[in-house]
Design a protein that fits this description.
Length: about 210
């Protein structure tokens, strides 16, 4: 029973990961087409990391550039970047947090790292859309695509959670039935033992 339950969850998790990765690939593909038809983005390295992360509010910076840089670095570097931006957002007034909040949204949207938190990314994104009134068109388009991506991920997560709850209910019901049947078997065995004792007593007296 437990093996079957683990297998079902493994299949659901694998399916969810495949769908998420497919949507992410499509998301990046569409974004790349929108940003430039002929321009090729140069590879990102640690040498230009500060330039990329510090210039997010300049007219020439794009969210997609920062996102692609995040995908080019290691999980350890992404974690360090998240710590850096978290510290900055804690030390900065909310009205000046738009740049830092944007970075955290993209960090938490990465499905390839342990920092993947679509619920948190969506909450920060909703706050960003309220605070930011003059977002450049390129970043606005990227943000809208990201919002659709997060909505899809959250829908799949909710659906998976609902399925898991339904499976758990069914398993609990089956466990309850098995326990009930086991109790009945125990009672029958007890009665059989009593009958055997009575039979032995009768034979001994006989």
């Amino acid at each position: 029973m437990n093996k079957k339950r683990i297998s079902n969850k493994a299949i659901k998790f694998s399916l969810f990961r495949r769908v998420t990765q497919s949507l992410l690939t499509l998301f990046i593909f569409i974004t790349t087409i929108m940003l430039s038809a002929c321009q090729i983005t140069a590879p990102f390295t640690d040498d230009n990391a500060d330039e990329i992360t510090d210039n997010i509010t300049t007219p020439t910076f794009s969210y997609s550039q920062y996102y692609l840089w995040l995908r080019s670095i290691s999980d350890k570097q992404v974690l360090a970047e998240e710590h850096k931006q978290t510290a900055l957002i804690a030390a900065t007034p909310q009205e000046n947090n738009i740049a830092t909040q944007s970075k955290l949204i993209l960090i938490y949207s990465l499905s390839t790292t342990d920092l993947h938190q679509p619920y948190k990314a969506k909450r920060l994104l909703n706050e960003l859309l309220i605070l930011s009134h003059n977002m450049q068109a390129e970043n606005l388009a990227f943000t809208m695509l990201l919002r659709d991506q997060l909505n899809t991920q959250l829908y799949l997560l909710e659906k998976q959670n609902a399925t898991d709850k339904d499976c758990n209910k069914q398993l609990d019901a089956r466990h309850g039935l098995i326990e009930q049947l086991q109790n009945q078997v125990d009672q029958v065995n007890h009665q059989l033992m009593l009958l055997k004792r009575i039979d032995l007593n009768i034979n001994e007296r006989g």
